[in-house]
Amino acid sequence: MIRILIADDHLVVREGLRTILEAAPDLTLVGEASDGAEAVQLAGELSPDVVLMDLRMPRVDGIEAIQQIKDHYPAVEIVILTTYDDDEYIVRGLRAGARGYLLKDAGRRALFEAIRAAARGESLLPPSVIEKVIAHLAEPKPVEAEGLSEREREVLAQLAEGAANKEIAARLHITERTVKAHVTNIFNKLGVNSRAEAVAVALRSGLLPSTRDAQARQVHAK
What we know:
Elements: E1 2-7, H1 11-21, E2 27-33, H2 36-46, E3 50-53, H3 62-72, E4 77-82, H4 87-96, E5 100-103, H5 108-119, H6 127-136, H7 142-146, H8 150-160, H9 165-172, H10 176-190, H11 195-205, H12 211-216
Parallel strand pairs: 1-2, 1-3, 3-4, 4-5
């Protein structure tokens, strides 16, 4: 069972999510928070697998709550569920440590998939989010982009395909530890903090062959 904590200041939203989650046999709701401060507190007390986090909340907002949870309870994964599709919110949320970003009008299936991906330590980002990340990012530095090794470029291509570390290791015939090391190097060289950003920078710099195809994919990130 995947243990879920909801953080939203609107009771009607929490009640709606509670009903939706009851329909999934592998998901269970363990707690509800009405603001970011309570979300941080309950994340420590309840040890959920995934937090569904709103952004605009009293006392402590969603972005700050994400940062505090990831600082103190790094094993807890977070999926942002909000009405705001502003580029800045998306980028700030992902950089703070969220695994996914969904709008509240997303369908039940998309919500379940995002939760399950986060519980696996991956992200599931819709194409619209990827497009906004790309639009928000500054142009990558040519020296950093050109500094990728051939193997790092291969790993980067796999990230764009949505492959998790285990899949990349199997496809490239290397260990998962080696994959993690390559991903870290890619992040450092491209100056990014997440796989979504890495793919976005790679698209902007021409490191990936097809921007249109890559934008159409949902990107899984670990």
